[in-house]
Design brief:
mainly alpha, 2 domains, about 10% strand
């Protein structure tokens, strides 16, 4: 009985940003096809690096900061929506607000089911 050898996929080579910049510069001077042959990569890889480099260069620092802030707020909003959906599905007697007389502080008392789900009891 013969055993078959498993073919291994070739390892992905992670190129540094500096390498990619140099490859794009070379492609600008000699052409993408010739640069790809010289570097031993696919032509489409050079085109992808060129596109990503141009997009990255076109963004200002303020735009990058705003995009990061937008992503953070989007994640936070999704988290709050999930919490609200959970609270909507609880039975009506599961949540009570207790306010002490002459106090601005409000205590939220949750049902044990809500505590088990990770909601804090203040």
């Amino acid at each position: 009985m013969t055993t078959r050898k498993k073919l291994r996929k070739p390892q992905r080579i992670v190129r540094s940003d500096e390498y990619k910049k140099d490859a794009v510069k070379l492609a600008d001077t000699v052409g993408a096809t010739e640069a790809a042959k010289q570097l031993g990569v696919h032509t489409t890889q050079i085109y992808n690096w060129r596109t990503k480099l141009r997009v990255k260069e076109s963004r200002t620092e303020a735009e990058t900061r705003l995009m990061d802030e937008n992503a953070r707020l989007t994640r936070k909003l999704a988290e709050k929506k999930q919490e609200n959906d959970f609270l909507k599905n609880l039975p009506p007697d599961a949540i009570r607000f207790c306010r002490k007389r002459n106090s601005r502080c409000c205590t939220l008392i949750l049902h044990p089911e809500a505590e088990a789900a990770g909601f804090l009891v203040a």
